Amino acid sequence: MHEVGEARTSAVLLRRAASGDQQAWQELVDRNAPVVWGVSRAFTTNNADAEDIYQATWLLLAENLGRLREPESLSGWLVTTARREAMRLRRARRRESPVGLDSGDLGPPDHAEDPEHKVLRAMTTSRLAQSFAQLPQRCQQLLRVLAVAPETTYSQVSQALGMPRGTIGPKKSRCLAELRRLMLAGDVPEEVAG
Predict the structure, then answer these.
(1) 100: which DSSP letter?
(2) Residue 160: is its pLDDT beyond 60?
(3) Helices (H), 64-186
């Protein structure tokens, strides 16, 4: 029932935004930003690429505000559009990089740490990144979405990744267990892997 009311609200907000209502546009963005960002991050480890996907998705919505065939299905449209933009960007990156590498940026460095902690954090981050890279792609996508947009509902994750909703929790548990196993196999201290 809640999803039906939300779909109607999205349709109303879309009509208002199409007529130039900036407040309606902002509310649309606020309501849907976590799922768009989650999909963007699910398909790339590179923050800049995720931001490009995110921005392109919102730009495409702005360009098509009055043309959506099913305005009550806005979240599905956003998920599909973000996924398509991610695939388009991935193809473009492959053409740019003959080896198809995706340089991952795990976040800004912490300049407040002393040198010893920086080295330990770099070693752990490197091992985590290496272990994460060994996970199947579906696990990587699922864990990225859940890490980047933890407020995203399982329904939204299901729609974003094309996974049955009832399998998300068990799949998440299996993926995290496998990540932990890989980190322990790589001689990462248990307190870091746990």
Answers:
(1) -
(2) yes
(3) 74-96, 115-134, 137-148, 154-161, 168-185
DSSP letter (8 states) at residue 66 = G
Which pLDDT score is estimated for 103?
Answer: 44
Q: What is the pLDDT of residue 119?
A: 60
- CA torsion angle for 63, 34, 102, 90 (degrees, to 10)? -30
Give the whole-angstrom CA distance, residue 46 versus residue 182: 22
151 pLDDT above the threshold of 80: no
Residues sharing a CB contact under 8 Å with residue 97, sequence separation 6 or more, in sequence order? none
CA 178 to chain centre: 20
Residue type at position 117: H
Q: Kindly list the distances between the CA atom of residue 93 and the CA atoms of 65, 90, 145, 146, in Å, as whole numbers in the listed order.
A: 29, 5, 21, 24
Q: Pick 61 or 188 by higher pLDDT.
A: 61
Question: Which tokens is 62 given?
Answer: 């702005």
As a whole number of angstroms, the longest Cα–Cα distance in the chain is 58
**What's the gap between Cα 112 and its chain centre?**
28
